[in-house]
Each structure stands twice: as structure tokens, then as C-alpha cells.
Design a protein that fits this description.
2 copies of one chain form a homodimer. Chain A is 46% helix and 11% strand. The first copy, chain A, is of the alpha/beta class. Chain A has 3 domains: 2-89, no CATH class; 173-336, Aspartate Aminotransferase, domain 2 (3-Layer(aba) Sandwich); 407-546, Alpha-Beta Complex (Aspartate Aminotransferase, domain 1). The longest helix of chain A is centred in the last third of the chain and has 25 residues, at 399-423. Chains A and B meet through helix 1, helix 2, helix 3, helix 4 and helix 5 of A and helix 1, helix 2, helix 3, helix 4 and helix 5 of B. Chains A, B: GO terms for molecular function: carboxy-lyase activity; pyridoxal phosphate binding. Chains A, B: The modification N6-(pyridoxal phosphate)lysine is found at residue 338. Chains A, B: One of its GO terms (cellular component) is cytoplasm.
């Protein structure tokens, strides 16, 4: 018994070392970290295997649900992580990976993140975050001012007010959108007479009190899928997410929005929120925000703008006009981990009215006491990291001028790529870039002519084959690992709204060069030749149509 | 015009450097990072100012809502961060800060976090996370197995199944609890006949279809405040969160639970979920999970266990019996950023039934396509970081044996502190440690005697003065900066359930020594003498009662 105790104590002493003694300068982990600090791009190039390994095979390295009984050395495990995890991760920072919204990070993010992790603050309350709380409130103030442009006295009054909040930091745009619609729902069904508000009595009693037969959120057909989740979670139901028609530029049609609202009201369904999209996920287009704002004011709807992607455009004096009307929104979502180049996990929602979030305020005894400035009383999440610090640092180190350059260059690059695609006889630009996103597909000239001349049945048939081809090219290109574009499905008006699979390109990585864009097309053209059977079927149908 | 372009290009070239050229070895940021790597504890001790600066004064450094127009140098800004932010942050890793659930981190977390940030994966889909997706699935499998202990073939079948998910990573326990109750709500109000399910048609139609007058979630009086948020967000309403009586050990009374359920049903209110607490936030007590499970089975309620804090206890062969019955839960919340010693932002929810999460499954065109293994189809959040990597690494480097030691030592330390408090004539242990949490207050012997002899009015009066004293001591101790305990309000049965302010202590930091515990009491005793007026009033009332 005594010796057992002694062993336990000795083991504990050695365990304490992982809390008190850093890895030695020669340890694998320190070596890797230094390598990474010296040249991140080289580190990623050297350690991430380019060619794709089938997922089934990767899973073999991660198939044991048992928690190891005995410890392993840090260095051994680090090597294991390099071999199995890092090697098979995605090189999101690669300049030729232009298919998603995650791109390169500025170098200073890495050491600053380490400081953030080492401090391990919890932003839910001041007791575990102190200066991080005013810092986060300032960052929210900065984004609020970027959107709404109020004067200094406004921010003096509200930014650090205990009973108010100009917005909330969230893990991402989804939680930001849910938070905005939560606020909107609670405001639409607020306390009234005997009724104590939806937050207290729930949705069922709220509906009976207000005598509605349903609730609705309206958004364009191109709205983000997180809104469907929001409608589900908030008890509205996905059927309550009403999709509004878009025009040929993927922008909401205000007439259809108005018509849908009128129709809903006639059915005694309350349209309590309209979501304008500022940068659709698939094509980067921006809804006519002013027109939506006018309708929302008239109809007394909450007007939310999902600018998770496009919000950073406000940093550019040259392009912020694209988002005109955003200052009329009741709430706005912006993701700092997208075009503000912050690591994953930094979403925000901002509210025009400093009182708006009171409808979701909550308190608890041991924290978030009434009158405290704890941020946790106005967030959907509880414990949260101090990632606001990275946004704050970027605002100073990159500054507005730097972000303007980044935004402008991304848009310029997208326009360059659009022109390049247009200049190819065998590609079709499907959506033009408004921000730095565009979509296109491989479409040999003869096939294009056939698509135009075909009757509707032939066109659908040919289009289906083209979809298969686009899918094939996209997958093959990803597997080869030289470059990556994503794919999605659109319904272009010019092709009778047929389901059309397209390549989707996001040009936010400042390291992506024009040469890379040329070679992406070149590679796709080559890959097409690797599908002779499919190409043969496309050719035969083309001949048939043109005959 | 030409020269303007030239300038823009030159500026862009210099901006590109922040993406391509790391900080030099002599830069302030590199220097700080190295300092931090060499000796984290010293770094924190040297850079965090111990004595508290009033929040109002800290806010002065964070009062400008304007985004700077011009960039500043990385080094200059780093110095600014050290002076204004780091200096005024909270030393959460300090062994004498025993008031919150955020404590020291193992050293290897810092370099591993940096690799995680540098890889910047997005776990929402495989396209941006590849090997991180199977890794996260394995970590969920490990925690699932820790709770439910199924055999290998179970995990072989389900862990990597595209259409299933054993749980979800979340930013924290709040989102984990919301996710569990979202699943429970959707299952209770699932599609049935003409009705397409609450996720499609919303709560109002669901209630009419099932003919309920209300919904309820039951939890003990000591449940976490996030459940109130969950009830609000999910449209149940906070009134639908029904609080069940607890016994003298802060554990739910099964009889009262059963009585409340019966009463709800008599009112045609559907009790769709019961939450058992495994480690209450304030006192660390564990509900009788087996008894709750029996009631839930009988009443066909979803049984959720909020083990955000206590879940890690399952790692200890010596104490896992405290959570007996957790394996009967339909879902369990565990926070890895608590007793698994992971940096902030790593919550998890696990489901017994691999099909459970199908009720909240969602898909989108460009990602999360049906049949894909994208994790995003089963999470409330969208884009998410690869923090699962840190849990995975800890499971290997610390291992079950190491976690067992950590858990055991924390509980041993709490018992030691409890004995120490009991041995003092002038302190009162208010809640005994079941895990590593306890609460107590400063209560001189004579005052204690008076509390016992007082009539109920005098007792309430004296207790109110003691509350003021506890508050004073806690605040003063925090401000002085040598040590920190938190405070909360309990209603001890032995004091007629009077509102009682207590010191709350969490002993999870492996670096906290017995000496520190002694000096915490010593300091509190001394601080009490700094409130002579208040102490005078307490003494006079005591004399009056004892006279």
C-alpha cells in the first residue's frame, strides 16, 4: 500500500513536468515549431503530401476508439502527428488552392496565437479575461463603426456599457446568423400585456398570444444553409424559411420579396425577418440591400445582412459602395476568419441598436451578475477564447489601408480570371465576379453551340453529361493535388434554370498569381482528355444536335 | 494615375511580405515567443500585473472605435499588446488562482496549437480538413467509448459512417447542451403521419399535431445557466425549464423529479428531457444518475447528462463509479477545455445511439452533400477549427493513466482543503468536495454559535451581514492579486435555505500546493480585519443574540 502510494507520487511528479518543463530545444516538437516559424510555406509544402490518399485509407490511422492506457513521449507523438495527420491535411494556404474561403494567414498570426493560447483567457466573464473584455468590446465597436459609421459619442456611450452590447463574438457565421435571428424572433414576440415574452413562455404560447398561424424568415434562393439550421433550432421550422427568387446575377428580386411577404401575411404568417446576402457563398453576389431595407421598414421586419464573406469589403473605399444599404440593417454577420485573414473561429454579429440584444440577455448567480460587464450575458456561447485579440492586432498591423489593398487586389484578380476564361473558346464563365468569387465550366465551343441550338430535351441531356464532366474534372484535379477549385450546382437563367454543376473559385489568397490561374485552366483542359468515354458521348450528342 | 497604380503595387508588395516573410529572429514578437516557450510560468509572472487596475481605467486603452487608417509595425504593436493587454489579463494558470475552471495547460499544447493554427483547417467539410475529419471522429469515438464502453465492432461500424455521428465537437458546453436538447426536442416532435416533424414545420404546428399544451425540460436547481438559454433558443421558453429540488448535497431529489413530471403531464405539458448534472458548476456534486435514468426510461424522456466539468472523472478507475448511470444517458456533454486540460474552445456532446443526430441532419449543395463524411452535416456550428487534434494528442501523451493521476490528485487536494477548513475555528465548510470543488466562508466561532442560537429573523439579519463580509473578502483578495477564489450564492438546508454567499474553490490546477491553500485562508482572515465597521456590526449582533 505504502509503495503503491510512493509510485503514484513519483508518477505524479513526472506528470507535473508536462505542466512545468517545456520541451527541450532539441525535441522534435521544438524543432518542428522552429521550422514552421522560419518558413511556414516551406514547412507546409514539405509536410503535406500533395497527392490525395483515399479517405478509407486515412481512416485506418484513426480507427481505434480506445484511449491509450500508457503515455507516449511528446517527441514520438509529434512524429506520429506529422506522418498521419499533417501529411494528410489540406494545404489551405496554398496559392493554387482557390476553391474555398480558407486561405493564407499573415505570419504574425502564428506567434500571436501562441500568446493567446498561453494566456488561455475565458471571455465569458471579466474574472477570467479582464483586459480582454474591453478589447473585445472595442473590436465589436470597430466593426460596428465600419458598418454603421456612428460618431465618437455613440461609441463612448455604448461600447463599454454594462447593460448593452453592440454585438457578439461567435465561433463563426452560423452562430452569428442564429444569434441575429434569435434576437429578431424574441423582439417580434416580445412581452405584451399578460404575455411575458417568447423567451419566458415559449413559441407555442407566443403564437397564440399574437394570434399568428406561422412565422417566416425570407432570404434569396442563394442564402447560406446555416439559415435553414437557424429556422430549425429556433422552432420556426425549415418550411418557415421562405426562398425568394433571384435574378441572373444571383441577387434577390425585390418584387418577389414583396409579393412573398404579402402572400405570407394573407395566410396570417408573420414574416419577422428578411436576410440580405452580401456575398453569396457560391457566387459572391450582393443583394440590393437598400431595396430590401425599404421593404423591411415598411413591413416592420427585422433586416439582417449575412455579410460573413462580403463584410470585409467595407474596408475598401473603392468597393464599399457595393454594400450600400448595409447601414440600414438591424444586424450584420461578419466572419473575421474569412476576408480579415484571422485563423478559424472568429465570427461576429453586430446590431445597429445597442438595446437590441436585451431580448436575449441572461444572468446567473456565480457569473454574469446583473450590472457586470461580463460579455457572457449577451452571447449564445458560454466559455470562449480570446481570439478577438487577433482581430484587434490585425486592425492595427494591417490597418484599413492594408485591408483595402487586399480586397482590391482580390477583386482585380477575379476580374482578370474572368477575362481569361471568357477569352478561352472551350470554357464558359457562368457567374461574373462581383467580389472575388466566380464560377465557370469546361464547355468546348462546338458543345456550346449545340447547347444553344438544342431543343429543351436535348439541352437537358447534354447538360447532364456536362455535369458529369465537370464533376470528373473537379475530383481528378483535387486528387492530383496540384491545384484545387471547388464545385457547386447553380441554375443559370440562360440555360433554362437547368441544374448546372460549375467550378467555383475564391480568389482571396494574396499569394495566388496570374500564372497559377492560367495553369488551372490548362490542367482542367488536360484532365478532360482523361475521360474519353464521357467526351465521346458529349461529342456524339453534339453532332446529333448540330446535324 | 499611373504613379498611383505604381504606389498601390509597391504597397501591395510590402503587404505581401506579412504573408511570406516571418518576423526576424530579433523581432520583438519572436523574442517574446521564445521567452514564452522557454519558461511560460516566468513569462506570465513577469508580464501579467498582479494588482488589479480598475476596469474603468483599463477601458481607456480600448475606447477608440476607429479602425486605424495606417499600418503599424508588428514589433511596435506587440509591445503595445504586452503593455495594455497581456499586463492586464488574468493569470488563469497561476497555482493560487483557484476560483475558476480554467487552469494551467501542459507545455506541449503551445507548440501543437501553433501547428494547428498554421494548418488552419476547417472541419465543416473534408475538402478543407481531410485527415482531421477521421481524427475528430476518432476522438468522438474515444469519448463515446469512455462513457458507453461499447465493443470494438460497434466503433468499427459507426465511428466513420457517413450517415451517422457519435456526437459533435462544439465551441463549448453551452453549444453541446443546446445540441443535445435540440436533438431531444426534434425526436420528441418527430414526423408522424401527415406531420413532417418539428424541424420542417416548426414548434407551433408540432404542438398542435401532438396536442400538447407545453414542453418541459427538467433539471436540478443547481443546473447550469446554459440550459435556460437552450430553453429560450429552442422555443420552449425559460418557464419550460422546470427546476427540481436538491438535497443537502446539492443533488437532485428523484422523488421530486417524479412528482414534477407527473404534475406536468397532468397539465398536458410534455416533459421531453431530463438533465442530470455530473459536476454542478458551483459545488461539483453529481446527481444520482441511475435513479434519473430509471425515471426517464419509464417516462420516455430523453436523458441528458451535463458532465461538462465532471466527465473527465471517467478517466479515473478510482472515481469513475461516482458517475455510475452515465452509460444510461441518451446524451452527454463533456468539455475538454476543463479537466482534460485543453485550451479554451473544446466542448463535445456524445450520443448513445448513432442514429440520434439524424433528427438534426442537414445538407447543402456545395458542401455536406448526402453520403459525404463531412462533419458539418451534424453540427450546430458551421466552420470550425481543428482543435480535436489537441484532444487527440493529449489522449496519447497524457493517456488514461496520466488523467487518472490528475483527477485523483485534484480530489485528494480538495479533501485536504476541506479538512483544513474544518480544522479552523473561524471558517465554515459549506459544501464538501465530491469532485475537486468546495465552498466555504469566513465564520468566527462565536458568530457560528450565534447563528445556531438565533431566531429566524436574527439569523437572517446576521447571515446578511456575513454575506457582505464574504463579498468584501472575495473582492479584496482578487484585487490584491496574490490569490483568487470565486464566490457564488447557495441556499444551505442547515441555514434554513437562506441566501448564503460563499467562497467557491476549484482545485484542478496540478501546480496548486498545500502551502498555497494554507495561505489563502490566512489572507482571508487578514482581509476580514480590514472591514472593522462591518465586523463591528457582526460582533454587536452576535453579542445581542448570545446575551
Amino acid at each position: 500500500m505504502v509503495s503503491e502510494h510512493k509510485t503514484a507520487n513519483a508518477n505524479f511528479e513526472s506528470l507535473l513536468r508536462i505542466f512545468t518543463v517545456p520541451e527541450g530545444p532539441d525535441s522534435t516538437l521544438t524543432r518542428i515549431e522552429e521550422e514552421l516559424s522560419r518558413n511556414l510555406n516551406q514547412f507546409l509544402r514539405e509536410h503535406i503530401v500533395a497527392e490525395e490518399k483515399p479517405l478509407k485509407q486515412i481512416e485506418k490511422d484513426f480507427c481505434d476508439a480506445r484511449i491509450p492506457d500508457e503515455p507516449v513521449f511528446v517527441s514520438d507523438h509529434t512524429q506520429h502527428l506529422l506522418d498521419t495527420l499533417v501529411a494528410q491535411s489540406v494545404h489551405t494556404a496554398s496559392p493554387s488552392f482557390i476553391g474555398h474561403m480558407t486561405s493564407a494567414l499573415p505570419y504574425f498570426m502564428m506567434p500571436l496565437s501562441k500568446i493567446m493560447i498561453a494566456l488561455n483567457q475565458n471571455l465569458v466573464k471579466i474574472e477570467t479575461s479582464k483586459a480582454f473584455t474591453p478589447l473585445e468590446r472595442q473590436v465589436l465597436g470597430m466593426l460596428h463603426r465600419l458598418i454603421y459609421g456612428n460618431d465618437d459619442s455613440f461609441y463612448q456611450q455604448w461600447m463599454h456599457s454594462a447593460e448593452h452590447s453592440l454585438g457578439a463574438f461567435c465561433s463563426g457565421g452560423t452562430i452569428a446568423n442564429i444569434t441575429a435571428l434569435w434576437v429578431a424572433r424574441n423582439s417580434a414576440l416580445k412581452a405584451d400585456g399578460d404575455f411575458h415574452g417568447v423567451e419566458k413562455e415559449g413559441l407555442f404560447k407566443a403564437m397564440r398570444h399574437y394570434n399568428y398561424d406561422g412565422l417566416a424568415i425570407l432570404v434569396s434562393e442563394r442564402g447560406h444553409y446555416s439559415l435553414k439550421k437557424a429556422a430549425d433550432v429556433l422552432g420556426i421550422g425549415q418550411d418557415g424559411l421562405v426562398l425568394v427568387r433571384t435574378d441572373e446575377h444571383n441577387r434577390i428580386c425585390p418584387d418577389d420579396l414583396q409579393a412573398k411577404i404579402t402572400e405570407l401575411k394573407a395566410r396570417n404568417i408573420k414574416p419577422f425577418a428578411v436576410v440580405g446576402v452580401a456575398g453569396t457563398t457560391e457566387t459572391g453576389n450582393i443583394d440590393p440591400l437598400q431595396a430590401i431595407a425599404r421593404i423591411c421598414q415598411q413591413e416592420q421586419c427585422h433586416f439582417h445582412v449575412d455579410a460573413a464573406w462580403g463584410g470585409a469589403t467595407l474596408m475598401s473605399g473603392n468597393y464599399r459602395h457595393l454594400l450600400d444599404g448595409i447601414e440600414l440593417a438591424d444586424s450584420v454577420t461578419i466572419d473575421a476568419h474569412k476576408q480579415l485573414y484571422i485563423p478559424m473561429g472568429a465570427g461576429m454579429v453586430l446590431f445597429k441598436d445597442p438595446h437590441a440584444m436585451n431580448s436575449i440577455e441572461h444572468h446567473a448567480q456565480y457569473i454574469l451578475r446583473k450590472g457586470s460587464k461580463d460579455l457572457g450575458s449577451h452571447t449564445l456561447e458560454g466559455s470562449r477564447s480570446g481570439i478577438a485579440m487577433l482581430v484587434y492586432a490585425s486592425m492595427h498591423i494591417i490597418s484599413r489601408a492594408g485591408y483595402e489593398l487586399l480586397i482590391d487586389q482580390s477583386i482585380a484578380k477575379a476580374r482578370y480570371f474572368a477575362d481569361l476564361i471568357r477569352a478561352q473558346a472551350d470554357f464558359e464563365l457562368v457567374s461574373q465576379p462581383e467580389l472575388c468569387l466566380l464560377t465557370y465550366r469546361y464547355l468546348p465551343q462546338q458543345v456550346k453551340t449545340a447547347m444553344h441550338q438544342a431543343d429543351s430535351s436535348q439541352r437537358a441531356q447534354l447538360n447532364a453529361l456536362l455535369n458529369e464532366l465537370t464533376k470528373f474534372i473537379q475530383k481528378k484535379q483535387r486528387e492530383t493535388g496540384k491545384s484545387f477549385v471547388s464545385r457547386t450546382r447553380l441554375n443559370p437563367i440562360c440555360w433554362d434554370k437547368l441544374d448546372t454543376i460549375v467550378f467555383r473559385v475564391v480568389l482571396a489568397n494574396p499569394l495566388t498569381t496570374n500564372e497559377i490561374l492560367h495553369s488551372v485552366l490548362e490542367e482542367q483542359r488536360e484532365i478532360a482528355t482523361l475521360a474519353p468515354l464521357l467526351m465521346g458521348r458529349i461529342e456524339r450528342l453534339t453532332q446529333q444536335i448540330l446535324a
